[in-house]
Amino acid sequence: MSDHPPTSVLLPTTRWTDACAQLAAQLGDNDELLIIHDNGDDPVTDLEDYPKGVRFIAAGEPEGCSGKANAIAAGMEAARHNRIVWTDDDFYHPSDWLVTLSADYEDHGPVSEVPYFVGQDPLSVLLEPLYASAGSLGLYLGNQIWGGAVMFERGDIDETTFLDELRRTVSDDGLLMEYLQVTTVDRTHIVPIGGTIHEAVERPVRWTQILRWHFPGAIVGTVLVSLLVLAGATLAPFPAVVILTVLHFAVNEILGVRRWTAVLAYPALFVFVPLILYGLARRTFVWGGRRYCWCGKYDVRVGE
After folding, report:
1. Which of 13, 51, 100, 276 has its CA 20 to 30 A from that of 197?
2. pLDDT, tens only, 138-176
3. Taking CA 86 as the corner, what is the angle to CA 82 and CA 89, rounded to the nearest 5 degrees?
4. Do residues 151 and 111 touch, judged by C-beta distance below 8 A?
């Protein structure tokens, strides 16, 4: 028997991954795992023998929003329960993940966890320390939402308005941050990213656009601080190398991750700042095999 309220776990994916099996094994008698895919041609639909509690939801092709936003919206509408979990298929879910997250909800209300992005290509590896400090640490200290691990209940948000806006934008968790206040708990998950240089370039474009449309003040501050730090690193390279390296090892300690890539913080700065400016200038980006033009907060064109 489950020791937490009936829960609907939403997992957008087009193929059966280890994460699917890990989550299915954690379902209580009244829980459900919604595997949200695009259409009947996706490999995940070929699975004939799947665990109890698993449901497959075909979201269809996105129109006017991202594939991820479209999947989450379809999953929210199909979910049977009041308690909702969003998660992703690209990180390890330990056997007590769902019950621990539910216990956190009982203690804190809506909760989220922290990602730590580990590169799978040279550029993503180089950028790891700045993703940790500018991204993961900010999520943790600011009690911000990561869509890969968030639990809330329907009554915690204005669901009707949220779903309407979700079907007209790109970022699921960026939008959810405007509707939901969470407590970010002290658990970090290793999330592999990249694989090719092209993917490594497209990712900061998307992340920059999320800040641009959802948190314009934050992107202005990020650009200004980044330019100031870059100027200081150029004028005083030796002190900057020491300070940035020590700082990023400290960031890793806070996040509970031991990664040698903290030593790359200084050279990463000279790539990270131009990528932010490039991300602001770009009109389109590729995510999950689709090209998007995010022309306005609620103006998304797919395939342009």
Report:
1. 13
2. 999 999 999 999 999 999 999 999 999 999 999 999 999
3. 145
4. yes
Whole-number Å distance between alpha carbons of 56 and 37 = 7
Domains of the chain: 6-108+146-181 (3.90.550.10), 114-144+192-294 (no CATH)
List the 7-12 sheet strands across, edge first: 54-58, 32-37, 7-12, 83-87, 149-153, 111-119, 183-193
Angle at 206 between CA 204 and CA 211, to 5 degrees: 95
For residue 101, what are the CA distances in angstroms to 86, 149, 186? 11, 9, 11
